[in-house]
## 1
Amino acid sequence: MSDRDESHRGPGSVADINRIIHEPARLAILACLYVVESADFLFLERQTGLTRGNLSSHLSRLESAGYVQISKEFVDKIPRTLLRLTAVGRDAFETYRRNMKRILDELPG
Amino acid sequence: MESAADLKKLERKAYLSYLQDGIWDTLFGLGILSFGVLMFLDLYYLVGAVVVVLWAVAIGAKKRFTQPRLGYVRFSPEREALEGRNRTVLMVLLWVAVLLGGALALAWGTSSGVHRWARAAGLMPMGIVLAGLVGAVGLLWGIRRYVVYAVIILVGFAGGHVLDVHPKFYFTAIGAVILLTGLIMMVQFLRKYPKPKGEEFAGERP
């Protein structure tokens, strides 16, 4: 790798950005789940403003990445499908935030 | 990009969305309005029953009205702790108000000075306590409209006292204003969050 390449691939480079999280809809979902303990599908739909189909496909992607856990629980005797961030998802989101902050801080001007 | 401050705002927005349904406002306004109407009808003794009924309705309404439209959420342990602290502070304030009322009632028969003061003050102490409690709810939970309600209550009681208006009039007026605000909020909430069609997304996995 050349010096020029190194300068572009150092810590905090654009290449380090987690592309799963970087997608705006998925970022909105993760940010919403990051600030609560758990929520159901409808709550996420209301908070993110995404359509059902859109939300569903992004959740599947996040679940397959191991960032979101989907479980069925009884709350007040009502079965609910609850979504929550996994420890991996929480770490990935925090790393993403740190990386983005570093990249933006390093921008000239 | 989400900064820590933005995440706090996001959490607060999610939390406050649960308080935008107008249920508590409507029932609180209805409670005060009922008090005024019962004064008109000379049925003071029914106030206790009205409070119990409204409280029971309020508890069930969140589950039946708000959750099916807004979805279910379990907030963070930090939020739950803050919620618990706020409730404790409110209960302490409520008990202080009850104890002050009790002390006044005890002093009523023993001291002519208290008697004179109470006559001169009329229902103003009650108005100050009620406004204080409602204002405390507004400040503790960060809901500005409750601070406005506190001001309305204070102005209503003070105006009624100064103008020597019978309490039934200002109780009814204050209750009507708060009830109307609650109903407007409820309509806005229903428009913004209609009940989702079909059962598949009502808390179920898509």
## 2
Amino acid sequence: MATLKLEIVTPEAKVYSADVDMVTLPGVEGEMGIFPMHIPLMTQITHGEIIARKGGEEFPLAVGEGFVQVTGDRVAVLTDMAIKADDIDEQKAEEARKRAEARLAEKLTEEEHASVQAALLHSLTQLNVKRRRRQ
Amino acid sequence: MPSTRDIRRRIKSVKNTAQITKAMQMVASAKMRKAQQAALAGRPYATLMNEVLAAATAGAGEFTHPLTEHRPLRKRAVILISSDKGLCGALNTNLLREAVKFDKDTTVFVCAGRKGSQWAARLKRELAAEFTYKDIPAFAEARAISKFAQELFTSGKADQVDVLFTNFINTLTQKPEVRTLLPGRITALDAEISGKGEAKDLGQAAQEYLFEPAPAQLLGTLLPHYLNYQVFQFLLEAKASEQSARMVAMKNATDNAKQLIKDLTLEYNKLRQANITKELLEITSAAMAMG
């Protein structure tokens, strides 16, 4: 059976690179599943969860905003943040969320507000992915 | 004439200084390597970003976006990327010499790094914001700076945003350079820390892609990310420059200290021998007088 090469890169590192059977992406216009031999596609993703399926196993990752390039045998994800679900430290993410929320409650200048908001989204995404896995 | 004890004391203090500068040199060289590695780690991202950009620009055709709008230049914003600490040779001096060239009345500064904001405060330049970045710049830090610059531009507070940073050419050479960030011009990204000039133009995408959403819209959202990454690159370049400048400065300091120790030791030995000779003379002449 044909496989897809899934690559997830951030400016800081190549987070994930492996052959998988199928990928689910959090597209801006709804979730989408990509199978091998998909037609070439450029799309945008939002904060959410990427699920890579390989041999009946699932590998979830939390990702930030980004872009995806799909060719017949390759899915390349370009994003600000990507963390494997197993690597998410729930406590840390929860702390980060609380910190960000507390900061939002303070008086902030516009640029601070934007960066805190982004940090909050990141930690929320991580928490969501982690919690869903547990159920 | 200093006594032997004075010289000994000086030798000791110079030795201590040499030890400190040597340690700082090692630390700086390790950090420089890390900054270079960070730039390399971003290479797959840059390559992919280039591909997406190439495909999107090919698909979008004529493209206009608030961030690419050219306006008559009335107010200029300059992102000044300096270091936080000194002891890095002429790095900041050279950088700030370039910064002085910007017109005082029509330029606002956005500073990253403490040296730059101190300079702006001292010369009473208009300072719009102050950012910090760590030894190994994080992408989030670059994003904050880039977001702020984009807001300045879109709100009309600045008609052009330039970046003044120290470009890393090699370990011995770093050059302060000005690049225009906004209005945005899309060129291929280069993920290597190097002295190469402006990035090359994008190659054409060979493949036909399906777009979702439409190419123009995709390009519109891609552009801010592209700018973020550019700022990230600038931060990495600046950091690598800072560390290598510090490394060289500290190496010179260590060498100078070693030379000084050598000179002082020579002087010390001369003085010591002179003292012994003098004492001997005194003893013999005293013995002769007695006899």
